Amino acid sequence: MIPDTIDILTRLVAFPTLSRQSNLALLDYVEGLLGPAGIRLQRYASDDGTRANLWASVGPDIAGGVVLSGHCDVVPVEGQEWSSDPFRLRAEGGRLYGRGTADMKGFLAVAIRAMLQAAGRTLHRPVHLAISYDEEIGCLGVRGMLDMRRGHPARPALCLIGEPTGMRIAIGHKGKRALRACCTGREGHSALAPNALNALHLGAEFVTRLQARQEELEASGARDDAYDIPYSTLHVGTMRGGTALNIVPGRCDLEFELRAVAADDPDAIIAGIVADAEDIAARHRGRFPEARIDVEDVSGYPGLDIPADTPEIALLQSMLGDNEPPIKVAFGTEAGLFHEALDIPTLICGPGHMAQGHRPDEFVGEDQLARCEAFLEALIADA
């Protein structure tokens, strides 16, 4: 007997699969459901063996078909005030509360059930399920699996990323680059501050230049009005430096990010930022030869920009009964990585809304899960 979606979701939520922590117990549970149904399973482990991706396939071992994709890691709950245990599913008023219910174990529960249903049918095309790890910290985990699947003869024809979109078809999101700037000055006694070079002051100058770059992007950069914020954005998230009030700090570190619309070249934007950093430091080297601002590209993922007239969109919208134009989402996903690695149309559609994720009392609506169930049933019936 196939377990229902809520039963599966109850089990998935109970695994505290925070990013960078093991997800192997969750994968053991999923494989314990899928394996006995004859579904083919392949794990792709992390370098240290503590985490893994899972690729599951049902139907003929040929090219074509669809891959349903979702990550199983979740963001932390520390510092958040929950009304109940975040790792114990709670149903109330048509909502299912728990960490990851919206982002994105709700979709995974529906997809696992759909795979079990597909295993009992005669399929003309395969259906795949991809479960990844460490998505929440820069889409890191899925890359190893995609490297191994790149060029595989049984390449799917379509990828569906089940991030929460309110069950709307999304065709795009901005790309992201996470960066770090290390500002090096010269330490000294604060009573003799002019004889030292304050690294925090270098960092402040750098932030001012980033603000100017942001204003340029807003005024004259590329625009895509499908987004709430239609231009590329720069954002400083952290700034650290100094050890005591009476010591001029010699080092200051900043973390900042770029989220770029498809028509902007992120490498060109970053090159301008690097030039700004060198200009700031160079003005001080006459007195302080060690003055530097080093910009490091830490991580990132590509954006997604699927043409609105892609034939698969109309097919999926007919299954959803959705006559509205496809949307673009503000948050990042693994979709751009799937699109680049497998060279297939990749779309985003899943139950719930991102505004309900990453927050205390995260939830997904039972009605959203029901819509997703009906959608995947129609998708598999077409396989």
Automatic annotation (TrEMBL):
Keywords: Amino-acid biosynthesis, Arginine biosynthesis, Cobalt, Cytoplasm, Hydrolase, Metal-binding, Zinc
Cofactor: Zn(2+)
Domain of life: Bacteria
Pfam hit, one: M20_dimer
Record-annotated Peptidase M20 dimerisation domain positions: 171-283
CDD domains: M20_ArgE
Claim: Transferase is one of the keywords in the record: no
KW Lipoprotein (keyword) present: no
PROSITE patterns hit by this protein: ARGE_DAPE_CPG2_2
Transmembrane segments: none
Homology family: Belongs to the peptidase M20A family. ArgE subfamily.
Annotated PANTHER family: ACETYLORNITHINE DEACETYLASE, N-ACETYL-L-CITRULLINE DEACETYLASE
Protein's recorded name: Acetylornithine deacetylase
Source species of the chain: Aureimonas altamirensis DSM 21988
